[in-house]
Design brief:
With 322 residues, this protein is an alpha/beta fold. The protein is built from eleven helices and eleven strands. Bound molecules: 6-O-phosphono-beta-D-fructofuranose. 6-O-phosphono-beta-D-fructofuranose (F6P) binds next to loops.
Length: 322
């Protein structure tokens, strides 16, 4: 099937670099004489028919901005047949014959369901959670990691000055990737993720060992979805009394801000590969960085559990924290 018109949407949690990907979708489409359309607010906008034509000029100057100029949303209704039918009706009414979905794991499950109905759909891997399998690093991860790291470094300064413990909660309800990487890069004494539950006894053992060897601060990086929560760790540390403990929840600040060069380039390159795939007649594929190359992987495989929080990385964090 020849693609004459394509639409692009951003879905799920926004990620720095999404705008570079939108810009690249539009300009690559125009380069190939295909008319680009933008969908507002992810799958919710798709179900409501909130779709408008885009031009090269309309998306000028967006690459350096954080967030997504198209808007994003969480749209559980899209998982229903009725939701998907509504979305496809709107696309067909506008003569749009292909869709590019920029987003993470949940968003790409939506792409797969559209592909399975026969509507040509290609994904672009974008989420600060880095929770897509077969993809090394998704759009947004590098910037979010650097944002988080810069904040943790500041907390470490005050922790050292006051001989305190700081428990820093990072984003990631289901994925501990950001916490793990920020923990290693900041030299945290302890890292807790949803994938690697840490018992409270281990926290106490670690803090006592750190105190015994003369450390004058204790830094714990905890992912949002860790079974042992950040406030529970603070309480345990204050009960133990080696270090007075404070809590710092970084929250959505990690998702905002201007994308770093890595994410601008990743967004630009991945989205171009996605558009080219769609124009070649491919569907059900995800464009992203895999084994160091911008390439396509099947969405069905990419949405399987990503297993990036490995025992090796956790072990490294532990060894380097002594
Ligand atoms: O999708 C990325 C993410 O930032 C997760 O790390 C976090 O758990 C979740 O989104 C927060 O979602 P919301 O912005 O809907 O509160």
């Amino acid at each position: 099937m020849t693609i004459r018109r394509l639409a692009v949407l951003t879905s799920g949690g926004d990620a720095p670099g999404m705008n570079a990907a939108i810009r690249s979708v539009v300009r690559t489409a125009v380069h190939h004489h295909v008319e680009p359309f933008g969908v507002r607010n992810g799958y919710r906008g798709l179900m409501n028919g909130d779709i408008e034509p885009l031009t090269n000029r309309a998306i000028g100057g967006i690459m350096l901005r954080g967030g997504t100029v198209l808007g994003s949303a969480r749209a559980p209704d899209f998982a229903t047949d009725a939701g998907r039918d509504k979305a496809i009706d709107h696309l067909e009414r506008l003569g749009i014959d292909g869709l590019i979905v920029i987003g993470g794991n949940g968003s790409q499950s939506g792409s797969l369901s559209l592909h399975n109905t026969g509507f040509p759909t290609v994904g672009v891997a974008s989420t600060i959670d880095n929770d897509l399998s077969l993809v090394d690093t998704c759009i947004g991860v590098d910037t979010a990691l650097n944002t988080g790291l810069a904040l943790i470094d500041r907390l470490r300064d005050t922790a050292t000055s006051h001989h305190r413990a700081f428990v820093v909660e990072m984003m990631g309800r289901k994925s501990g990737y950001l916490a793990l990487m920020a923990g290693i890069a900041s030299g945290a004494e302890l890292i807790c993720t949803p994938e690697s539950p840490v018992p409270i006894e281990a926290v106490i053992e670690t803090v006592q060992a750190a105190h015994a060897i003369g450390k004058n601060h204790f830094l714990v990086v905890v992912a949002e979805g860790s079974p042992l929560t950040a406030p529970a760790i603070v309480d345990a540390l204050n009960g133990d009394k080696c270090f007075e403990a404070r809590l710092s929840v970084l929250g959505h600040v990690q998702r905002g801000g201007a994308p770093l060069a890595f994410d601008r380039l990743l967004g630009s390159r991945s989205a171009a590969v996605a558009v080219q795939a769609l124009l070649r007649g491919q569907s059900g594929e995800l464009a992203g960085l895999a084994k160091g190359e911008i390439t396509l992987v099947p969405i069905a495989d990419a949405i399987l559990p990503s297993r990036k929080v490995t025992p090796e990385l956790l072990g490294l964090g532990d060894i380097l924290s002594r």
